[in-house]
Amino acid sequence: KKEFDKEMEMASKIQGMIIPKRLPKNHIYEFSGLYMPHRSIGGDYYDVINVSTDEFVFCMGDISGKGIAAALVMANLQSYLNASPPLVTESERELVDRLNSKIYSITNGDKFITLFIARYNILTRELVYLNAGHNPPFLVNKGEVTRLDKGCALLGILEYIPKVQLGRLKLEPDSLIFTYTDGLSEIENQKGIAFGDERLRDFAANNSNLSSEIFVKKLYTELNTYNEQNGFNDDVSVLVGKFY
Prior knowledge:
- By secondary structure, the chain is of the alpha+beta class.
- It has helices spanning 2-18, 67-83, 92-107, 182-185, 196-207, 212-227, and strands at 29-36, 44-50, 55-63, 113-121, 126-132, 138-141, 144-147, 151-152, 167-170, 175-180, 236-243.
- Helix content is 34%, strand content 28%.
- α2 (67-83) runs antiparallel to α3 (92-107).
C-alpha cells in the first residue's frame, strides 16, 4: 500500500506539472483556467500553445477514466501537441488522422479522448477549430451566444474516423470563448439537479464583458453556491479566452 501511495503521489505531481500554471495575458488576448481533479489524479487537460508571433493554439481535452493510466495518456497528448501543434499546415483529414492515430497507438482502443482544439490568428482574427466529441464551448461574439460544435467523433476508439468538418469564423473585438469538461455541467445541488448547459449558457451571456480571470472567479463562486459546497463528483476544468 505504501508503494502504491508513493506511485500515486508521483503521478499526481507529474500531472500537476502538465496543467499550465500561467496562461497568456496581454492587450490582444488573455486566458484563464480552473482545474479541480475529483481525485488525486484526473483525466482533464487544457493548454495554450504558441505557434508563431501571429498565431497560437488552445485546447481542452478529457481522457476517459481516472488514475495513473489517464494521467499517462494525458502526458502523452500534452507532449505530442506541444511538439507539433496541429491546425497549422495540414488539411482536415490529415489533422484528424494524425491525432487519432497517435491516441489510438497509446490506448489501443481501450480509452478515448474528447478534444476541442482551435487555432487563432491575431492579424486576421480568424478562428479555426475542431471539436472531437467534446462539450461544445460557448462563443459570445457581438453579443450572440453560439456553440462550437463542428468537428468529428471522439478520438482513440476507432482506427479511422469517417467524417470530419472544421469550423471557421471571425472573432469580433471583446469576444469570449468558454470551454469546459462535462464535470462542470454535471455539478449537482442537494436535490440532485445538475447545473446543466443552459445555466452555463446564461452565465456566459451575462458575464462576457468581464475579463477571463474575473469570469472564472465568478463562475467558481456561483458553482459553489449552487452545489452548497458539497464537493464535485467528477473532474472540473474550465478554460476561458477573451479576445480584444
